[in-house]
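Record type: monomer structure entry
Structure origin: computed from sequence
Chain ID: A
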Amino acid sequence: MALGSYLSVTLLLSVLAAAKCDIPNGVYPITEQYAAECGYTVSVFPQPGHVELRASYFSCHTDNKDDEVFTFNFNLVATHDGQKETYALNKTCSPSLPWSPKESTCEVNYMEVSVRSEITCPSETKDDLSALKLAHSSTTSDWQVMFLIEGEQSLPRNLSEARKQGYLFDLTDGRLVFRAPYGQPDSYSTMMNGVPVEVVYATLFSRQNWVVLMVDLVATCSLHKGLYDDSGYMVWGIPMSPSPSFHNTNVRIGLNGELLEQSAAEERGYIMETYNSTIHISIPNNAEGGYRKSFVTADLHEFYMFNLYLEQILVADNNVEARLGFHRMLTTPLLPRPVFTENRTVVGEHMFTVYLGDVPEDVELVAVQLNGHDFALPFSNTSTYTISTVAQPNNTHSYTLKVPFDDPVIMQQFSKEDAAMQHQLNINYTLTVQPENDPYYHFTSVTALTDVSPPTFDTVCSESGISFRLDRRPSDHLWDISIGSDLLTPELAKQRGYIMSNDSQSLLLEVPLFTEGYEYKEFTLKGFFGTFEILVRDHGTAEVQSSAAKTCPFSTTELIVCSTDGRMTVVADLSLAIPSGEIPARVNLIDKYCGPKEVNGTRALFSFPLNTCGSIVTFDKENVKYQNEIFYSKEFLNMSKQVSGNATERVIVQCTYPLAGLNRLFKVYRFESDITGIGHIIHNTHSTEGLQSPTIKPTAAVETTSATATTKRFIKRPAFHPPAHYIRVYGVYNSPFGLGKRAKRSSQSKVNVGIM
């Protein structure tokens, strides 16, 4: 993985103070080769703008005082996207422990060895160290180096030539330093106790007359890249000892240059184990001081980086101590980093609650798509949706999305399998990895089932009738709407005079007063109450599940109601048949003892059973008609005389029922019909002769002739009829009336019925 993809920089060192063994001041590009030769390591970390420059105590541009005080005094010039910025790097350091006789460092890009020496730096230039001298001699010596490669000695070469090949030899006040980049021709790779290592073996020698001074400089560094195991640990290994002549005494580990005692390392989850003379170091993913980064390929991934620092103390057979330090950048492979969603919906709340969890800290939710509708975050203040963010203790955070069931964005359909309404919400989360803003999409779908309730109507009273409104729902097809036992259809509405509009959004039914289906009660001359009921039935079983009944007050000048239980209720305006409009003194039906229940001026209210009060019954093959008359005069009539011979004005009232709808007709004085009858009020100013057999046929309008002619007015008033069972109809000609003889069977008959 190329970390340069996160931060591309060009680094320059501007040297303000030269080292003790002079190197000219100037500006030096820190290339990979120059860094490895001069003792620098540059690391780029995933955090925005995090670049680490690590320098050896013996690096080229470090001021060294007696191998005890080291001063770094540089300017770092960084170029990023064409912009240059300069950072002052000034630091003075001293080793925390005294130098061991031999110090070895295995850096990321080079190996370095320093040994205690009595060789010192001469006053003249030492670019190629060709003038190194013994401390006890002033004679110039010719220093050379030979490399031992897997037991074979290379040809000697002078230090100038070795320097050109990338090797560095330096002599401080008390130490001889040798540094070599990895992969040099004179180094070699081998396996040591199952661990790949790179070895560089240099012998530095100088011939002094009959004496040869030789110094062995050997570095052995592990090339182990690290392994990631499924338990969440990065594992790295080193040989227990780089040479049989050394044995291990102590190992300490840490991250970012900080060494920990064994107890502290164990508290942080580090594991150090030994197998077959190999030390295995295991570092948990969540180790403090590690670096983590999210990464988008096809899915969301992550990787971890550990800047491992390890120090190993070795003791040779002659009790000479050697310290071996390792710096390694360990990087895990790309690991799947799935986020997860959890449906936390409580159906009783009628709201989806969806939890999006385990979102890394460098990943941000920026938008959501709800059933194909895109919404940027945060939601507007007017939105019915809400989303909240909660930080979690494991360096992650979570989001909770809430969307009401009844929101238009929710998809709804009836589930026959569950016999319930299914609400569905498809969510596509848009997350971005920071700071690159690389998008990642996470999809989930949640459903919820709710019990299906019958539809409910909104009802409104008006002067002319009652209105019912139903807002459509996806579950409405589970129910049938009926008026009584009849299914509400456009054909039924047209037949009965209802006004209906029906579409996918709503159903509106306007029921005019006096159309079929009303039930009336509490009649007075001031008004009455009308009730209309709509039934909601199960589509499969036809069972009534609910109803919407509305009762409204109404007022009218005249009305006639022919009920299914055989009662006629009439409000008659008597002034309509009186040209002068004078108020009558007495009002009654054919039977003079049947008077009105209420009189107010010219208006009278009658309510009586059809087969009482002198009603006349006529019938044909299809219908039976009940007729009575309202008589009135200005004078008080003789109560002992027959009404029909004295009245001068009359109003005829009629109720007509189809024979097919009658269940009982005067059987044991009961009346029962499936439907209401058709009523008429006929105003007539005419001679009363022949009142017992009226032959006036009802019409729908007022007819006016000359002053001597008869004035007639017919009012047709249907009324409510509740559901009834269809059973056998008894004809008049074979029903027991108690009249003393069988009525003649003909196409039309009449029966005068008195008070029963």
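Annotation 1: The longest helix spans residues 32-38.
Annotation 2: The two ends are 109 Å apart (CA to CA).
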